[in-house]
């Protein structure tokens, strides 16, 4: 048992073989690599199989409403920007219900890491197609002959376009690489997105471990992550080959850098000098 295991009797309720096991192990390893101070680390989850991750890891944690991971993480970070804030959720949570929040968090460049457990289905509710499902995918809810008729959201391409300043993809079947992507994302100053390819062994019969093993390819060492055009071109590749690694990275001011209220440090560390709380309370009563 490591310092990062939850000191509770919780046993993960994920299905045996679920890709979430690789993700939680990689996250704990990333915490250890970075020697994160657990008292200064906050994990914010949405709702779904993926969002149970906070129950099994030892740090401060908030379980939010479905799709509301990023606004809550934003609030935590702006109240105390000294904290390491990590948001985690699934493709349904983040790209469906939470899509609007993803757009605005990216363009603002909040200093938050966002790890998306992308299993291409809504697993917790028994396998409906999600915003990242393959076209033509058959499920109990999208049966033959048509299957899924919607085009999938490309998380990497969208994150680059919207203004996230670190964008990577990793595969839960390669935990060393996933650990490295997570550590780089947490270390990055700005909105850091990692699209994590995660098989759902119970409800996704298409994107299996075997399917990914044949396709994932690490981006070549000659790729310059500051080359936006090349990053976008790589993001467009999905089929017989699926690139994984760091696509895009830039240094630009975070949202908090632009706020004069935070120049003096986190709000929680600033004195309430001159604030007349009692009259304010009377006014609000
Ligand atoms: Fe994992 Fe899918 Fe089972 Fe959920 S339903 S725990 S995503 S295998």
Defining key terms:
2-oxoacid:Fd_oxidoreductase, Rossmann fold, alpha/beta, 10 strands, eight-stranded mixed sheet, iron, two-stranded antiparallel ribbon, magnesium, single chain, 285 residues
Count the domains: 1
N-to-C series of helices and strands: HEEHEHHEEEHEHEHEHEH
**Beta-strand percent range:** 15-25%
Query: What small molecules does the structure contain?
Result: iron/sulfur cluster
Q: Based on CA inertia axes, which overall geometry fits?
A: globular
Do you know the CATH architecture?
3-Layer(aba) Sandwich
Sketch the major β-sheet. 8 strands, mixed
User: Which structural class fits the helix and strand makeup?
Assistant: alpha/beta
Cα-to-Cα separation, first versus last residue: 50 Å
Number of helices: 9
Short characterization:
With 285 residues, the protein is α/β, with parallel strands linked by helices.
Would you write up a description of this structure?
Helix content is 31%, strand content 17%. It has a single domain, classed as Rossmann fold (3-Layer(aba) Sandwich), CATH 3.40.50. The strands form 2 sheets. An 8-stranded mixed sheet has the order 2-1-3-4-8-7-10-9, with helices on both faces. A two-stranded antiparallel sheet has the order 5-6. It has helices at 20-34, 69-79, 91-97, 99-108, 155-162, 175-187, 209-215, 228-235, 277-284, and strands at residues 41-45, 60-63, 84-90, 113-118, 121-122, 128-129, 166-171, 192-197, 216-218, 242-249. The longest helix is centred in the N-terminal third of the chain and has 15 residues, at 20-34. The model has no long low-confidence stretch (mean pLDDT 93). Keywords: Iron, Iron-sulfur, Magnesium, Metal-binding, Oxidoreductase, Pyruvate, Thiamine pyrophosphate. Residues 47-196 form the Thiamine pyrophosphate enzyme TPP-binding domain. GO terms for molecular function: iron-sulfur cluster binding; metal ion binding; oxidoreductase activity, acting on the aldehyde or oxo group of donors, iron-sulfur protein as acceptor; thiamine pyrophosphate binding.
């Amino acid at each position: 048992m490591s310092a990062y295991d939850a000191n509770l009797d919780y046993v993960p309720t994920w299905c045996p073989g679920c890709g979430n096991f690789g993700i939680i192990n990689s996250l704990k390893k990333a915490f250890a690599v970075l020697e994160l101070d657990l008292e200064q680390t906050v994990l914010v989850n949405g709702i779904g199989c993926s969002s149970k991750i906070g129950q099994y890891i030892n740090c401060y944690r908030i379980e939010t409403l479905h799709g509301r991971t990023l606004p809550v993480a934003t609030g935590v970070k702006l109240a105390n920007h000294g904290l390491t804030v990590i948001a985690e959720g699934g493709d349904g949570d983040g790209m469906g219900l939470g899509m609007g929040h993803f757009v605005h968090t990216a363009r603002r460049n909040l200093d938050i890491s966002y790890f998306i457990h992308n299993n291409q289905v809504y697993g917790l509710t028994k396998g409906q197609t999600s915003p990242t499902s393959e076209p033509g995918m058959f499920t109990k809810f999208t049966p033959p002959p048509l299957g899924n008729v919607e085009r999938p959201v490309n998380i990497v391409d969208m994150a680059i376009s919207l203004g996230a300043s670190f964008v990577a993809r990793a595969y839960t079947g390669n935990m060393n690489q996933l650990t490295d992507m997570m550590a780089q994302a947490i270390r990055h100053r700005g909105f850091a997105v990692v699209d994590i390819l995660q098989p759902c062994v119970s409800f996704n019969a298409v994107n299996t471990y075997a399917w990914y093993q044949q396709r994932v390819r690490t981006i070549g060492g000659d790729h310059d992550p500051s080359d936006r055009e090349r990053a976008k071109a790589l993001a467009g590749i999905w089929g017989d080959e699926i690139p994984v690694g760091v696509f895009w990275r830039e240094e630009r001011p975070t949202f908090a850098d632009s706020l004069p209220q935070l120049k003096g440090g986190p709000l929680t560390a600033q004195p309430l000098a001159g604030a007349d709380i009692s009259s304010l309370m009377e006014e609000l009563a």
